[in-house]
Amino acid sequence: MxxxxxxxxxxxxxxxxxxxxxxxxxxxxxxxxxxxxxxxNDIEFGIYFASQHxxxxxxxxxxxxxxxxxxxxGESDIVVxxxxxxxxxxxxxxxxxxxxxxxxxxxFDTYKDNAIGEELKTDFxxxxxxxxxxxxxxxxxIHDIANALDLDNSDRLKYTKLISLDKKEQFLKQRxxxxxxxxxxxxxxxxxxxxx
Length: 196
Fold this sequence. Notes:
Elements: E1 2-12, E2 21-26, H1 29-41, E3 45-49, E4 58-70, E5 76-92, E6 101-107, H2 118-130, H3 142-148, H4 153-161, H5 165-192
Helix pairs in contact: 2-5
């Protein structure tokens, strides 16, 4: 883990995973100021997962990817990309003289060890084939698989707390097996309906 002092924090009820692109609508004055600072200084900021289930105080470090639209009212539609996951160690209601909040964090360095084993790659390829997905597996890493499974917030939290690559792989293998089972059940039931 890497310590990072006083980053801007944007509390939301979402937990983006590494590599995930997330659209945001920025309208509050404090977050319009944050967006201005992000653009001017090319800085990253944290999306803190604001949920009662987030006892570990986990969040996602994101970087601005693009601004889709600016409104006359000062609001904006933007896209950010998750570049890491963090633990929030200290929350600051206001970051210095800024309107927005901030906090001290420990980064997980999630891209340090993210290559996938052959077994998980094979399981994922099978899943893509049965679901007729257009995703390409050749250059994917473990986070790409997690994103492709569209995990709910509970599973996202579990996934981010797993430190070792082996445990992440086991977790994703279980989710892949479950998704395959559900998909196959849906296909079976779909074929059992008869029109009258």
